[in-house]
Amino acid sequence: ANQVVSGVRIYGVRSTVQLKAVLANTAYQLGSDAVEEKTKGVSVEDGAIKGLQPAAMKASGSIVHKIAYTLISGSAGGIPGRTIKVKISNMTFKEVKELKESLQDVQGVTAVYQRLFRSKRLELDVVSDMTAEEIASLLSDLGYDIEDLSSVTVEGVLNEKTGEKTP
Known about the structure:
The protein is of the alpha+beta class. It folds into two domains: about 1-75; about 80-165, Alpha-Beta Plaits. The chain has four helices and eight strands. The strands form two sheets. Strands 5-6-4-8-7 form a five-stranded mixed β-sheet. A three-stranded antiparallel β-sheet has the order 1-2-3.
């Protein structure tokens, strides 16, 4: 998308950075992470370059935790699949537990890691052989409104009608 501000055309750009940690002597993959950053620039290239540094910083910070988990768990990169970030708003702690259990029971989902739960906002890493679009469709079927979707991220909100509890 682009717009003109004070005679200058501004472009909105999504920059995606994917990092993989691999043991050099065995080519064993310890972990990978992909991060997407939304930025603006005076050209598509300018916006993309501006988004690379913050995306790389987030990805590198995140991958450190995955490497540590892999080394501690002893799996040494044996978890197959790609990692999709799932971010859902308007959640209670009980709903977080239910969603994690539901996702772990889905065929094709290898692992579900909770990154963050703060101010009713949940962030999960879902390791799966499914695409982000397939995970978004699954979440939609479970009553979540999907607000943003990319190749590595699914963002949504718990539908208030679904989330209402009757006394």
